[in-house]
Amino acid sequence: AGNDVWQYYSGGVVTACPGAQSDHAVIAVGYGTTSSGTNYFKVRNSWGASWGEAGYIRLQRGVGGKGMCNVAEMPAYPKIVKA
């Protein structure tokens, strides 16, 4: 997330992420579709509420491969174990 797209993100749906390189973890917390029809994931970053959309970024979904900005490069899911 060290590229300019992340560094200077202030709002909207990211639809291009040139030179994307994964270098820290984020968490996808939701998804949606804009009024113009762009599907996106809502992703929480760790850079605080003053960054992006109150600490979140929206990344276009459905692009295939590792996803927009490599968001699906190393997915992890919780495993619930009964006590």
UniProtKB/TrEMBL annotation:
It comes from the Eukaryota. Pfam families: Peptidase_C1 (PF00112). GO terms for molecular function: cysteine-type peptidase activity. Keywords: Zymogen. One of its GO terms (biological process) is proteolysis. InterPro entries: Papain-like_cys_pep_sf, Peptidase_C1A, Peptidase_C1A_C. Residues 5-78 form the Peptidase C1A papain C-terminal domain. Belongs to the peptidase C1 family. PANTHER family: CYSTEINE PROTEASE FAMILY C1-RELATED. This is Peptidase C1A papain C-terminal domain-containing protein. It comes from Saprolegnia parasitica (strain CBS 223.65). The lineage of its organism: Eukaryota, Sar, Stramenopiles, Oomycota, Saprolegniomycetes.
